[in-house]
Every structure is written in C-alpha cells, then in structure tokens.
Design brief:
By secondary structure, this protein is mainly beta. The longest helix has 9 residues. The protein is 7% helix and 43% strand. The strands form two sheets. It has an eight-stranded mixed sheet with strand order 13-12-14-9-10-11-8-15. The protein has a seven-stranded mixed sheet with strand order 1-4-3-2-7-5-6, covered by helices on one side.
Amino acid sequence: MEQPKSPNYVQLASQLDFSRLVCALERTPRISFLHDYNGTKILAIQMDLLKERPVIYYIPADRLGHYLSYGFKNGKEEAGVVDSISESTKIYSPIVKIKSLPASLRPVSEAQPDKYELLELEDLASLAKLSYGYEEAPFPLFAFPHNSKWLIGVFMNFNEDGPSYFCHFALDSEPKQPFLKYAMHNGNMPVFTDNLNEHGYSYIKIIKLQETHPIINYG
C-alpha cells in the first residue's frame, strides 16, 4: 500500500493572524488543533493539499485553553486563548487537543519536491476577482516578503491533475491593514482596510506569514 505523503508546515506571523484565519468572515469558525510539533505545542489547521501533501499553517501556542477567541474592540482586532465562551460579540474557534499524531501528519526534514508555481497578476482588482462566484466568505489571501517586495495572493489549482499556483500581486511594501475591501459593481480599485462595516463592499482577510513561503517555486 502506498504510504501517505508527509505534510508541509508553514508558520504564520502571529496569533492574531491565526485567529483571523480560523474566525474572521467565516459563517462557522474553523476548528483549531493543538498538538506537538518538533517539541513545541502549536495551534494548527490544514488549509490545502499540494500533490496529496497536507499544507498546514500554525503558530506556537503561548497558552493552553479550550477556545481561540476573535473580535473587535474600539475598531481594532483582538484575539486570545480562553477557557469558556463568554462574550456574544466575539467569535470562538474550538481547540481540539491531539494526543498523538499519525505518521501522515508528522513533519519530516527532507526537502519537499512538490511546490506551487508563481502566477503573477496585473493588479489587486484581478486578485479580488478570483473570489467571483463564492457565495460565502472567500478564500484568505496570504502575504509574505520576497526579495524587496511583498507578495499577496491565493493558492489555486485549475484542474485536479495539473499544477497548483500561487496567484499573486507584488506590493512595494508590507500591507498594514488586515483586510482587502472591494466591490464588483464598480471600477474602483480594491483597498486595504481594518473596517468591515462599510456597506456595499466585500472583504477578504489577509494572513501574514512569519517569513517567505517555503513551498513555492520562485525560479
């Protein structure tokens, strides 16, 4: 029997980014998983399969609890690990504690041969248009530094047997706001924002990585 392929682990920039990933703009928050990773407790979630290899995003767990909370206070995001659901204005991701990982989810040290291919887009409007047809919250955008630019984009494949792509736009500097605001009904260029309350717009959450994404072919 063919052995399952070992996963790729990718670290996010902060607990706030992880909380935004599992909670923000989701009809139902995603479940967070707590387990050991190279001797450290982490919060993790699988977001993709790359040639049958799980792609798992994680952060080190700075404290233990039953839920990851996410919300806004005075117009700013806030997140934390808590033991109970106590505030109706916040969103909570249940934390499932895994005692022992199966071999198929254990990290390995050898280089992974399968990588995403770069597909560069002309502008942020083209990136936002990739969300067309999604009735619920669209996919997250991942952002990270590469050389002198910041790349922001989404991972997609256009058929199951073909390559997977990082469809992206190159920014001159780090995006400072956690969401991209856009509207399909007008010709205005999407803008970065931290305000989700403007009517007539759609929003895509932005998730920053700790460093350059390790499983993209930059050649």
